[in-house]
Amino acid sequence: MSANLIDGKRVSKRLLEKVKKTVAELSDRSGELPCIRVFRVGDDPASKVYVRRKVQTAEDCGLVSREALVPNAISEEGLLKDILLAVDDDECHGILVQLPLPERFDPAKVINSIDPTKDVDGLHVANVGALWSDQDGFLPCTPLGCVMLLRDTLGNLTGMNAVVLGRSNIVGKPMANLLLAENCTVTVAHSRTRDLPSVCRNADILIAAVGRPQFVRGDWIRPGATVIDVGINRIQAPERGEGRTRLVGDVNFDEAVAVAGAITPVPGGVGPMTIACLMANTVTAFCRIKGLEVPEGLGI
Ligand code: GUN
């Protein structure tokens, strides 16, 4: 048996087409374009790639996008000032600060300096609170994208056992909440969980978000389960030649594909969904700020 591949590129393309069409309509109607500003600080090579992709995709959708040019040596105070300029700029509707930030920054302080109405990444404490109390806010892009993939693959998720492996603020915790909202029975497992393999084997839906390459083994997976691999890890790939690397997820794909019913590949699974959801959230932010009705199909 070999699992069905969950095609994040296909599902994200559908969402991006909706975003593109909506941006064109909004532009005709209001004469303005939604704009996202992306802040990246430091030299993290993966962040550079992710931010470039976000800015490029925004442009492909007709959004105005700008990577804020942040000097490497900027202080926390300097960054907060720059974010405030974007908060006060009526022509900017979405703000994102790429994580991780260098050690000298307090990420909570930086994220909470974004106005929640422009926090299209859904990480501001007000948006976290909104999520946990069923109020309108912004949903974090990766968990949102995962739910879209699950609905596309499985339809109604009611009553399913979902295991979320990982408890980060950016994925694990919001993911657990969204699955609860889909009427799943949710277990959040983590590095201190006793007997992880047997906890995982209980999952109809397994979300792997631990940030450890190929951590989840094939025999942790219930036959026929749906596996969503959030991990993006770069590992050495000597089989491709000296010094070469490749991307792998948090799941041992070759083992898992023989057991699971459906699985996301890495790359091409969750990654494209995260970016597409960021675009959708930015259009939603624009509509809310302008007092326009938010079109159907941009969220869940
Ligand atoms: N770093 C890795 N994923 C993300 C994300 O979804 N948002 C932000 N801001 N930083 C990230």
Describe this structure in words.
With 300 residues, the chain is an alpha/beta fold. The chain has 10 helices and 11 strands. The protein has helices spanning 8-30, 45-60, 76-88, 107-111, 125-132, 141-154, 172-181, 196-200, 253-256, 270-290; strands at residues 4-5, 35-39, 64-68, 94-97, 161-165, 185-189, 205-208, 226-229, 233-236, 245-248, 262-263. It has a 6-stranded parallel beta sheet. A 3-stranded parallel beta sheet has the order 3-2-4, sandwiched between helices. A two-stranded antiparallel sheet has the order 9-10. Strand 2, helix 2 and strand 3 form a beta-alpha-beta unit. Helix 2 (45-60) packs across helix 10 and helix 6 (141-154) packs across helix 7 (172-181). It is globular. The two termini are 32 Å apart. The mean pLDDT is 97. Guanine binds next to strand 4 and helix 6. Residues 96-99, 121, 141-142, 170, 274 line the site of guanine.
User: What portion of residues belong to β-strands?
Assistant: 5-15%
Radius of gyration: 19 Å
Spatial order of strands in the largest sheet: 1-11-8-7-5-6
Which stretches are poorly predicted, pLDDT < 50 over at least 5 residues?
A: none
Distance between the termini: 32 Å
The structure class reads alpha/beta
Order of H and E elements: EHEHEHEHHHEHEHEEEEHEH
In round numbers, the mean pLDDT is 97
Tally of strands? 11
State the shape.
globular
Bound molecules: guanine
- Tally the helices: what do you get? 10
> How is the main sheet built?
6 strands, parallel
Helix content percent band: 25-40%
